[in-house]
Design goal:
67% of the residues lie in helices and 0% in strands. The protein is mainly α. The two termini are 23 Å apart.
Length: 137
């Protein structure tokens, strides 16, 4: 439409009906938004199905360490009726990290962040140069 309006100057013709064109454009935009939302929803459910199938390939609930465990009522009774997930799936309370380990890990993260920031600056420069080159043509 922009091409038709700017290059072909269709607004100057008798056939051009701005109100009707705006209605069509709004309808197309709404249809586009619905299509995009449908695609996003489909992708979301596809990811969920993939996740489930990767953990439960036989479509049967099985023990997955750290995620779930099939227990009997007797086991629940032995645990005083507690349904706390960590009690069954093998996830216990976190051990406290050694302070030296924490400092070392933080230094690693900081160094990694510095490298990523440098790469981001470099990429931003390349993108800017590409845009400038694109608009010079």
């Amino acid at each position: 439409m922009e091409l038709a309006e700017k290059k072909l100057e269709v607004r100057k013709t008798e056939e051009w009906n701005s109100r009707l064109i705006r209605q069509y454009r709004d309808g197309l935009n709404a249809a586009h938004d619905r299509a995009v939302q449908s695609i996003k929803t489909t992708l979301y459910f596809n990811q969920q199905v993939h996740w489930l199938q990767s953990r439960f390939p036989e479509a049967v609930l099985v023990d997955v360490p750290g995620l779930c465990r099939v227990v009997t009522r007797a086991e629940i009774a032995q645990n005083d009726g507690s349904l706390t997930p960590g009690r069954y799936v093998g996830v216990g309370a976190c051990d406290t990290e050694d302070e030296d380990d924490f400092e070392e890990r933080m230094q690693e993260i900081h160094q990694e962040l510095a490298v990523l920031n440098e790469e981001a600056i470099s990429l931003a420069g390349a993108i800017q140069a590409n845009f400038e080159q694109l608009f010079q043509k």
